[in-house]
Amino acid sequence: MKYIPFGQEKKELSEIVLGMMRISDKSVKEVEELVETALSVGINAFDLADIYGGGRCEELLGQVLNNRPDLREKMWIQSKCGIRIEEFTYFDFSKDYILESVDGILKRLQVDYLDSLLLHRPDALMEVDQVAQAFDILHKSGKVRDFGVSNQNPMMMELLKKEVKQPLSINQLQLSAAFTPGFEAGFHVNMEGDKAAVRDGSAFEYCKLNDMVIQAWSVLQFGYFKGNFVGNEKFQQLNQVLNRLALKYGVSPSAIAIAWVLRYPAKMQAVVGTTNPKHLIEASQASNVNLTRKEWYEIYLAAGNDLP
Questions:
Q1: What is the set of active-site residues?
Q2: Does the pLDDT value for residue 104 go beyond 90?
């Protein structure tokens, strides 16, 4: 497992993050086994959000940590807030809601602090001074050590930086071999057509310029939660390439697909959402695969993309 320096303390975090969005129907014993498996292969980063499973995902991990307090210091735990699910879903970055959310997260996790808190999706009604006040309170009280965002473009992050004193250490962005709008815009600069449209404000380049960690999510998905492309007959050419490279490197096709994400030259992490310990072990091997430039482009093209 390879590691990247993170945050103000430059803590070493695994390139693979265990995403715990889908554990809500698991038992406490099964979640403990999943955590133990992650740690055994060098994964020390764990991602949640207050809305995952309606809070049940955090509660389950909290029960594991209550039973096994020795695990806490081995784990870097991140959660997210800002999405409200009531009669309908909307976003809320108000000071009071951020503070209330974090207190709920800590209670469910049965911990004293979060290693990282992300603002989950952009809030068009965001008042930056409210976020700054909330972050100051959370940081000074020791409840949150580092901060970041999820799915934000450069101008949104610049707006936050106007008032927020703490560094924004992370941006979670969707990326997989079958979901590459950020790269398409870069390849088609100064050209006509839909692929030339810059939809994310060059978020990937901005994160590199500002030494932010990019946490890629849905690394095995195509579209917006449309399904897994590995082994999917809709992506026959892509799977032929993944299978061939899997044989070459002695790993699974999924590991090759994740290695493709990690090959982007930035502070990259891949959030892997499996709840199967065997699949997690396979996914962890992606960190040991260093695809060549030619192989990276071959995968990109096999996914149905093109180059000028």
A1: 52
A2: yes
